[in-house]
Design a protein that fits this description.
This protein is mainly α and 193 residues long. The chain has one domain (34-192). The protein has helices at residues 3-17, 33-43, 45-58, 63-85, 93-110, 116-136, 143-171, 175-189. It comes from Alteromonas alba.
């Protein structure tokens, strides 16, 4: 087994064995706001899968399109956070969060050429769902510290997905289909939680 295959297998095993979505519990203490933000995307498989999958998917696009997708993703992650913090909510938010993993996984598996506008729109929409959830869960916390923490971890997870995709694409490009399908199936499994 090559080094890339070992890294990819390790990442998939980590994703497959992460605890169920416990990320939606609220973060009450001021002292722990930043740490709560840092840990939040790691505590629920829904957020973990979505962040890694976004990086993995974005890596398949050319420079400007990739940058536009990631800029939109993080801008709407913050925008959704702000709206959630302000108390806005909408029906099917949790369903939307789960669907981000399913759809992103299928896009990775099929490697369909989508237009820049569609890719940026999907990335922004996915981020909005996750941002809302983060914003709604910061009641009693220091919002800017919590946001800083979850942005750092989210960016790290997106970068990890990006890096793994580049490694896989160089050594075993056919693995993209399997990895995408695994991500999509993990997303589907979240409907039962």
């Amino acid at each position: 087994m090559t080094r890339t295959q070992k890294i990819s297998s390790g990442l998939l095993l980590t994703l497959a064995t992460t605890a169920p979505a416990f990320a939606h519990t609220g973060h009450e203490t001021v002292q722990n706001a930043f740490l709560a933000g840092l840990s939040h995307p790691l505590m629920g498989i829904d957020h973990l899968i979505a962040m890694v999958a976004m990086g993995y998917w974005a890596s398949g696009f050319a420079g400007k399109q990739c940058k536009a997708m990631l800029a939109a993703f993080f801008a709407l992650l913050i925008g959704g956070f702000s709206l959630g913090l302000a108390g806005f909510s909408f029906s099917f938010m949790e369903t939307g969060i789960v669907l981000t993993s399913v759809i992103t996984g299928l896009l990775i598996a099929t490697r369909k050429n989508v237009t820049q506008g569609l890719a940026v729109s999907l990335a922004a929409c996915f981020a909005m769902f996750h941002g809302f959830a983060h914003g709604l869960e910061t009641a009693g916390s220091v919002p800017y510290l919590f946001a800083s923490g979850f942005l750092v971890t989210s960016a790290t997870l997106v970068a990890a997905g990006f890096a793994v995709s580049k490694l896989v694409s160089r050594s075993i490009p056919s693995a993209n289909r399997v990895i995408g399908l695994v991500i999509a199936m993990m997303g589907v499994s979240l409907f039962s939680i």
